[in-house]
Amino acid sequence: MNKDLDFLYNSLLLSMGQEYEHSRELLKTIEEEAHVLKKCVLADILDFNTRKERVLLSLNMAQEMRMGEIKKIISHLNLDEPVSMTQLVAYAQNHTRQNLIDYQEKFAGLITRIEKINENNKELISFSLSHITNTLNYINILTSSNPHYDRYGQIKAGYLQGKVISRES
Known about the structure:
Elements: H1 3-39, H2 42-77, H3 85-91, H4 94-143, H5 163-168
Helix pairs in contact: 1-2, 1-4, 3-4
């Protein structure tokens, strides 16, 4: 492998390492999310969302760096896009090839864990929103006036058409 291509692959490995670290940080962050949500303290939730947004932005930047390195390798090898990681691995030399394969495996496990925790957090949020909606509906029922009774619990005779009820009132 020539030195230029070796340099490009090393740059790719560095960017993948940064992306992996940011992904691990995201995993730790979303693991904390359920605890923050269960505490139900608005200030903590807002602070957490700000922190999570920063983690996602840094992860996005790392992904863009990785994609830039991949494009440089594709250009250097004169390959047509899109190119899979498997194709890039095939052009790499022994040590670099193994490092790329290792990152593929690490990312696969990490992404699976992130998806599972995200799904659990999504269910927690959905349950909470359902509970809030039910509570609001219950309060609305309690506070809304029933059209057939006045506020003292007596039948409102003015709205009724029956003769018996009209004569009684």
